[in-house]
Specification:
The chain is α/β, with parallel strands linked by helices and 288 residues long. It has one domain: Vaccinia Virus protein VP39 (Rossmann fold). Helices cover 41% and strands 14% of the residues.
Length: 288
Amino acid sequence: MDEPSGTPAPPDGDDMDGLRLRTKGRLDPVDLRTDRPHPARVYDYLLGGKDNFPADRSAAERGLGKAPGLRDLARANRAFLTRVVRAAVEAGVRQFIDLGTGIPTSPNVHEVAGGHTPGARVVYVDNDPIVATHARALLTSAGDTAFLLADLRDTKAILDSPETRALIDFDEPVAVLCVALLHHIPDEADPRGIIERLTGAVAPGSLLALSHLGADLAPAQAAAISAGAAQDGVTLIPRDRETVSALFTGLDVLEPGLVPVPLWRPDTPVWDDEVARTWIYGGMAVKP
Ligand SMILES: C[S@@+](CC[C@H](N)C(=O)[O-])C[C@H]1O[C@@H](n2cnc3c(N)ncnc32)[C@H](O)[C@@H]1O
């Protein structure tokens, strides 16, 4: 696969040691922009992961100063991802395109899907070369999975890639996952147009699941986090419920609708303070 221009080829090591070696050696750390925070690595730090750098940790700590519940938010979002994958399998869907995969965090999509059905197929997509390194090593070692280093905005590259075409049967329903991703896409890149191109390509019965930081759920925290991210060079745009709902235009939104993620088909009772800390909407819709 051709890498997007300007993006360094990811190292092809198969473990963290390989990454460290190559980060010190063949790959210039500046090429991987480890000197700057990156959404995947900041999120990894919030989730308690180890695949992050000082710039990511500093950014996350600054974020926690403005929104102390960010760790809970990240964990609740990850739990939402698990529940939507399970719900997709229960709806009979066996193939997944996981956009904005992030650094592998167990249980990953193929692990959740594979735990509920044999033969699940997953294409993972992210634009971070470090995610690519970990994902190629960890996510594609078992079952029918592939990783694609691509930008969400280039939907044609994602839909037409050999990886996608090898695993996804576009005549059958597919679950398109955009979990904690679209708030990294600025308005001028037309998030709604991106979703329309993706959902336009998949068969009826396909599912779109997304989560998105909610500007109206915690306005002061959302504004502070967004402004802080902008200072770090990271696009982070919480949007209000109406704007996020519009991403589902043309699709049938499934129960319980677009809600703070802890309230999306919870497995256990949900406390009010948990919802208050978790200012991120989640929902799933089906293509009629
Ligand atoms: C907050 S993480 C979410 C990870 C995972 N989806 C989850 O919810 O647990 C956002 C991910 O989106 C990726 N991302 C951001 N902008 C992207 C873009 N334009 N194209 C592809 N991936 C992108 C980041 O690299 C990061 O891994």
